[in-house]
């Protein structure tokens, strides 16, 4: 049955997802934006895991106009939890995508062993910001569900008990740029993609914690002014030079992901106590943490 | 004292005359009045074509600081002038358009602060120093910390009273560009202001983002911070 499924989907691109590290394992995940199930890897089954080695998280929106596509996937590569925003679109931060991301983080948080997180995206965009198209379809009092949910997502990232790495595989604009910068380190695609605080150009005001996040990650006043008050689109080379991102990776999306995963693996290998990592991070980012932590959803019980 | 003119989209505020442009009550009032006119013009055209401000000075000085009178002048007077300058800082940091200081001469103490309260600073290479001499009232310290972010730079300016020429100031991130002399500095500043005005940013949004970016400095000079509700309403209105 699984072979039949693989056969039917053989027209699309594939990637190898065997995380038992077995050379030549044929477990693969099709690169499609449509709803997929996890792929069983025979080696994991033999090792007694017996569960999906790549979970896909579908949108839970009750809105019938949203098709049930996979919004993001979670997989393990060695010690690294890799969350990927799926599909070739702009990965606009709608309530659905934010909810999917928070679920993915909850899954990662529940993992028993020390690890590290990488957040990446398929396609041309890392994320192009809030889903204003969605916001136009709902009454204003519901906009807070998107903006508030994003605040809670940032709180989740700051409280995550493991090192975090953003793999900025494409353009990161506005809230999408803030999402990337809310990680401990950032690996950015060298050949394509900008960090762009587009709010000044599109006429949007900042939530207060955005200002604190930018101040934390772009301490130089002139560089920060150029980004937020100048609407400068920052390339990977400039971002590395200014110390805003840690490294620029050559090649395509998969190469950037591989570089981020390698960096994350190095951090995970240090075997740090995750709770300590989270506490240190909150202590190092007190201004941002102070502004996001009181969100009702941010105080979640330990799983 | 000072004049205000409009050249296309750019408002040019000029500190006039060959003197030190010491910030006493008359000049402070004159500058505030000019900034109020700029604000009124911007608010009269909220969806307007975009605007920017340039502040420039005639003579050898941009501004040599507060008008504290002869050496040993009273502390009361100093305190009074420190308080009187604070609203200028607030006016500039809340101005709904990009602001450019053309530092065409010496800028010390409150004169340096005046330049720092602008978004961009261009300075002449051939003459003039930046210098912060006086003890720092609280709002001054917060302004300096917001705008001078390289650690050694802040120490040198605030703790060591270092006198900076334009190239050093640029190294330290205090000045954005260095131009040959005063006329070139003024011309480049106006050109930059025109480019910024041509982006046609929404002035209220621009000012709001500025306040979000330098929240501590803005609070220190008395700028009210918008609530989340106000920002949510604005978000809804922009869709």
UniProtKB/TrEMBL annotation, chain B:
It comes from the Eukaryota. It is an enzyme of class 5 (isomerase). One of its GO terms (biological process) is fatty acid beta-oxidation. This is Delta(3)-Delta(2)-enoyl-CoA isomerase. Keywords: Lipid metabolism. It catalyses: a (3E)-enoyl-CoA = a 4-saturated (2E)-enoyl-CoA; a (3Z)-enoyl-CoA = a 4-saturated (2E)-enoyl-CoA. The keyword Cytoplasm does not apply.
């Amino acid at each position: 049955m699984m072979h039949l499924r693989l056969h039917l989907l053989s027209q699309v691109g594939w990637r190898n997802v065997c995380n038992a590290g077995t050379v030549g394992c044929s477990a693969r995940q099709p690169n499609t934006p449509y709803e997929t199930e996890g792929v069983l890897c025979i080696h994991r089954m033999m090792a007694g895991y017996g569960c999906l080695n790549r979970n896909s998280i579908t949108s839970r929106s009750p809105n019938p106009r949203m098709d049930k596509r996979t919004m993001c996937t979670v997989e393990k590569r060695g010690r690294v939890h890799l969350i990927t925003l799926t599909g070739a679109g702009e990965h606009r931060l709608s309530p659905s995508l934010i909810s999917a991301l928070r679920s993915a983080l909850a899954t990662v948080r529940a993992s028993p062993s020390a690890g590290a997180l990488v957040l990446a995206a398929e396609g041309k965009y890392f994320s192009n910001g809030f889903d204003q198209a969605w916001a136009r379809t709902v009454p204003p009092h519901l906009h807070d569900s998107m903006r508030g949910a994003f605040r809670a997502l940032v709180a989740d990232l700051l409280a995550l008990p493991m090192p975090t790495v953003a793999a900025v595989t494409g353009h990161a604009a506005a809230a999408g740029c803030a999402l990337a910068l809310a990680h401990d380190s950032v690996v950015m695609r060298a050949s394509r993609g900008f960090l762009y605080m587009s709010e000044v150009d599109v006429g949007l005001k900042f939530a207060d914690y955005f200002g604190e996040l930018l101040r934390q990650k772009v301490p130089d006043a002139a560089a920060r002014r150029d980004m937020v008050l100048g609407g400068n689109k920052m390339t990977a080379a400039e971002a590395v030079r200014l110390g805003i991102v840690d490294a620029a990776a050559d090649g395509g999306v998969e190469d950037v992901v591989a570089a981020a995963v390698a960096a994350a693996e190095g951090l995970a290998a240090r075997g740090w106590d995750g709770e300590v990592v989270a506490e240190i991070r909150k202590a190092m980012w007190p201004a941002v943490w102070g502004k996001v932590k009181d969100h009702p959803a941010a105080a979640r019980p330990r799983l | 004292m000072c004049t205000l003119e409009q050249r296309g989209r750019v408002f040019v505020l000029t500190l006039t005359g060959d003197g030190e442009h010491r910030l006493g009550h008359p000049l402070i009032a004159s500058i505030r009045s000019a900034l109020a006119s700029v604000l009124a013009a911007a608010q009269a055209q909220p969806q307007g074509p975009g605007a920017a401000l340039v502040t420039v000075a005639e003579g050898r000085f941009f501004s040599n600081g507060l008008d504290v009178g002869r050496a040993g002048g009273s502390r009361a007077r100093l305190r009074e002038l420190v308080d009187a300058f604070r609203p200028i800082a607030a006016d500039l940091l809340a101005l709904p358009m990009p602001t450019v200081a053309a530092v065409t001469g010496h800028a010390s103490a409150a004169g340096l602060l005046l330049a720092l309260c602008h978004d961009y600073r261009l300075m002449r290479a051939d003459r003039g120093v930046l210098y912060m001499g006086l003890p720092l009232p609280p709002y001054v310290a917060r302004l300096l910390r917001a705008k001078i972010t390289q650690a050694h730079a802040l120490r040198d300016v605030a703790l060591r009273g270092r006198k900076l020429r334009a190239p050093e100031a640029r190294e330290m991130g205090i000045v954005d560009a260095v131009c040959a002399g005063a006329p070139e500095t003024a011309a480049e500043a106006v050109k930059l202001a025109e480019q910024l005005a041509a982006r046609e940013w929404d002035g209220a949004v621009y000012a709001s983002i500025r306040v979000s970016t330098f929240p501590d400095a803005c609070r220190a000079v008395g700028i009210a911070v918008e609530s989340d509700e106000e920002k949510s309403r604005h978000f809804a209105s922009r869709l």
